[in-house]
């Protein structure tokens, strides 16, 4: 009898031991695979009640919002957590290829931010706009009332009707614009279109041919990739509706190389407590970009469509574009109060 009990006890101990060792090995493997910059999470520490809730929300956010998108969460759960679909309090309005996805995903690391995953194209698409503001709200993710919702649709920046439409929804909304050096942005824009054409086995012109008018040998301002990079022209349209204080300009080139300080400026602009830390961002040498770390088990890099290799462009054309954009850039610095050292020859 005693012997039988001892055997049973030993078996139980063996099962428990195996579980413990297995979990430990999993954690070690996981941590070992991370490209860690800091050994400890700096958001550990003393928190007030509100911060505790926010921190829990961060750990909880991913699983739950994933379920919500998939429609797995019951109405009861939404009611229990007081979750609502809020209109965005801030919008990343552009600029296409400026790093809009990276900015949205990185801001989403903040426990008080919830992102709309898809580009909604409510304000730039007449058909969507005609569906009304409730349609737009229903496209938003569920969030806690203390959180803010952010969406990004880079086409907003260059579409004529958008500033007035957004103004009508919320005249005090915060607007984020992420810019990159205009010539690089134009080439990135071209590269994206080129990839689409190649996928469909279509031929396409070289960048040089599109960017330079062959009859005048001047920069072709009819080419959309060039026009989009004339930031000041678009911004001036927005300024008819919103004061400059409602905009925050993000340096997209710096977001690539040194994302944290850029994100900290955005946190300040959005009146959010500083919660994104170096722990949340780690450089992935294989990707050549910073990736995101939500917690010890969940990290992710942006999709491969972000960070394409650009084609070589004739340096004379690059030079011409630098010179072309220079006066517009000067005006942009003057209006926004943010100066970049973008080349001018
Ligand atoms: P390239 O593909 O030209 O390198 P958008 O999201 O607005 O389309 O911008 C895409 C650009 O975001 C990419 O342009 C890439 O350089 C930039 N980017 C910034 N941070 C990034 C990151 N952490 N991972 C991948 N791409 C990033």
Automatic annotation (TrEMBL):
Active-site annotation: 97 (for sulfotransferase activity)
Pfam families noted in UniProt: Sulfotransfer_1
UniProt: 3'-phosphoadenylyl sulfate binding residues: 97-101, 180, 188, 290, 306-310
Secretion signal span: none
Xref: InterPro entries: NST/OST (IPR037359), P-loop_NTPase (IPR027417), Sulfotransferase_dom (IPR000863)
Membrane topology value: Single-pass type II membrane protein
Chief place of localization: Golgi
Domain (Sulfotransferase): residue spans on this chain: 88-332
GO molecular function, one term: [heparan sulfate]-glucosamine 3-sulfotransferase activity
Keyword Disulfide bond: yes
Keywords, sorted A to Z: Disulfide bond, Glycoprotein, Golgi apparatus, Membrane, Signal-anchor, Transferase, Transmembrane, Transmembrane helix
Cellular component GO terms, alphabetical: Golgi membrane
Subcellular location: Golgi apparatus membrane
Residue pairs linked by disulfide bridges in the UniProt entry: 291-301
EC number(s) on file: 2.8.2.-
Catalytic activity: alpha-D-glucosaminyl-[heparan sulfate](n) + 3'-phosphoadenylyl sulfate = 3-sulfo-alpha-D-glucosaminyl-[heparan sulfate](n) + adenosine 3',5'-bisphosphate + H(+)
EC primary class: transferase
Family to which this protein belongs: Belongs to the sulfotransferase 1 family.
Name recorded for this polypeptide: Sulfotransferase
Gene source species: Chiloscyllium punctatum
